[in-house]
Structure prediction request, 199 residues.
Amino acid sequence: MNIVCLDLEGVLVPEIWIAFSEASGIPELRRTTRDEPDYDKLMKFRLNILREHGLGLKDIQRTIATIDPMPGAKEFLDTLRSETQVLILSDTFTQFASPLMKKLGWPAIFCNELEVGKDGMITGYRIRVPQSKLTTVKALQSIGFETIASGDSFNDLGMIQASKAGFLFRSTEQIRKDYPEYPACETYEELLSLIRGAL
Prediction:
């Protein structure tokens, strides 16, 4: 029994923090898991910047409302979901993901949760489990699933390495160079073909 585990940002939708960096004019917020392997360090850095600028959840959600899935992402996902089970594993937050899931046709997603104060300021975050993508893939395997995984960033490597097949999608040159054993592709047609070959 197969299940395909996909990253969200950079694979199906644009990077939320990059979009917010552009909307807010704060270049430091462009930093993502492609640049910083330590997610906890990255999030603390982001929250400090938000506090410095007095920006809260609603400010980010306004930007998210303007984000559309990448061209072809919904069609790719619809096709894939008609052929096998699919689960999106993301380090984003439910407060960010919901409007994007609506635009993608409500696929299943496991992600994290923001802690928000009464004033709308983000005070912290709750990670579902440590190394959530890898931990989830291992849990799926423990209940009889064979996993196929794809993502673009450092935080996707664990689930890719632990799966029966793993693919890099629109990843960085450095990650592709450091992990040549994983097929890398740029289009949904290529990714669909690689996944079908692994099913």
